């Protein structure tokens, strides 16, 4: 993947800036955050990554991508803690921003005004396809916005959505391939759907199986996703069909 990276720090600048990396689950947000922080460290800048303490899926003190790339991180309970902990940091990384309180926007603004490069990643939409605060607000004030896409596991198109594949209507529901899969706008349903369990096991065992399935699913009439998308169809739910 090649992503254009905003220009690296000019130390004489009075102000820093905000970079937002957003997109669906599995789109490479965490990998891109890790890449940018590593490059900054090579350039002898001090870096620190923060994540919300709620996100303990893989490790308490690491940011880990779905491809198992990892860097150490500091878990925080509130956005304002970042201000205290990032006092001597040139480049501040913030992962899973959708789990922070709205105050994160002001925290990022203060850090940037204080001369820091702030790199924030997060989901721009929830499982219903609704904007996931505070990412939209951060996109509005950021100097740079990078929107990434995964590959739709149904048709192979650009996945802009995170399809929930387990029951539950809480907005916050942690998970990975056990609970979500990336889908394009045509294949996405704004409510949880049931998918074939064999398919999930294949996803966990070997990502290449996803590619094999993509190429057959688009033309197959017995696609397990299309056949089973019947879990919870809320009457009031907005539909994109
Ligand atoms: N359908 C998919 N499309 C693209 N990448 C996928 C898909 N499913 C799994 N992946 C894996 O997810 C990795 C990206 O993980 P990560 O950076 O953690 O994404 P994000 O932070 O956006 O959820 C990819 O490099 C790839 O190995
Ligand atoms: C769509 C959606 C996702 N989540 C959760 C699921 C994961 O724990 C994270 C996203 O992680 P990733 O690094 O972007 O893969 O968010 C949620 O709680 N609610 C949702 O609607
Ligand atoms: Zn699709």
Describe this structure in words.
Helices cover 25% and strands 21% of the residues. The protein has helices spanning 29-42, 80-85, 104-113, 135-141, 197-205, 208-217, 224-228, and strands at 17-23, 47-52, 62-64, 70-72, 74-76, 91-94, 117-123, 144-148, 150-151, 158-159, 161-164, 180-183. The strands form 4 sheets. Strands 5-2-6-7-1-8 form a 6-stranded parallel sheet, sandwiched between helices. It has a two-stranded antiparallel sheet with strand order 3-4. The protein is elongated and about 50 Å long. The longest helix has 14 residues, at 29-42. It is built from 7 helices and 12 strands. With 241 residues, it is of the alpha/beta class. The chain folds into 2 domains: 17-148, 3-Layer(aba) Sandwich (Rossmann fold); 151-228, Wheat Germ Agglutinin (Isolectin 2), domain 1 (2-Layer Sandwich), CATH 3.30.60. The structure holds adenosine-5'-diphosphate (ADP), the ligand Cc1cn([C@H]2C[C@H](O)[C@@H](COP(=O)(O)O)O2)c(=O)[nH]c1=O and zinc ion (ZN). Adenosine-5'-diphosphate is lined by residues 23, 25-31, 65-67, 150-151, 153, 182, 207, 210. The ligand Cc1cn([C@H]2C[C@H](O)[C@@H](COP(=O)(O)O)O2)c(=O)[nH]c1=O is lined by residues 25, 29-30, 57, 123, 126-127, 162, 171-175, 180. This is Thymidine kinase. It comes from Longibacter salinarum. Keywords: ATP-binding, Cytoplasm, DNA synthesis, Kinase, Metal-binding, Nucleotide-binding, Transferase, Zinc. It is found in: Cytoplasm. Zn(2+) binds at residues 152, 155, 184, 187.
């Amino acid at each position: 993947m090649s992503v254009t990276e905003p220009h690296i720090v000019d130390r004489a600048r009075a102000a820093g800036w905000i970079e937002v990396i957003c997109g669906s689950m599995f789109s490479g947000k965490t990998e891109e955050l890790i890449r940018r922080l590593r490059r900054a460290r090579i350039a002898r800048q001090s870096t620190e990554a923060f994540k919300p303490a709620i996100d303990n899926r893989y490790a308490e003190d690491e940011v880990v991508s779905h491809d198992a790339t990892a860097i150490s991180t500091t878990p925080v309970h509130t956005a304002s803690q970042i201000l205290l902990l990032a006092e001597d940091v040139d480049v501040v990384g913030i992962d899973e921003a959708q789990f922070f309180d709205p105050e994160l926007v002001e925290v990022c603004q203060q850090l940037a005004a204080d001369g820091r490069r702030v790199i924030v990643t997060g989901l721009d939409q929830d499982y219903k396809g609704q904007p996931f605060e505070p990412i939209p607000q951060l996109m509005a004030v950021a100097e740079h916005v990078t929107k990434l896409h995964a590959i739709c596991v149904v048709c192979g198109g650009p996945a802009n959505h995170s399809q929930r594949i387990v029951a539950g209507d809480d907005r916050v529901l942690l998970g990975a391939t056990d609970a979500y899969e990336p889908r394009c706008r045509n294949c996405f349903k704004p409510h949880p759907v049931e998918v074939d369990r064999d398919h999930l096991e294949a996803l966990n065992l070997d990502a290449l199986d996803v590619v094999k399935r993509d190429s057959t699913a688009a033309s197959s009439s017995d696609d397990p996703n299309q056949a089973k998308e019947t879990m919870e169809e809320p009457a009031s739910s907005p539909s994109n069909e």
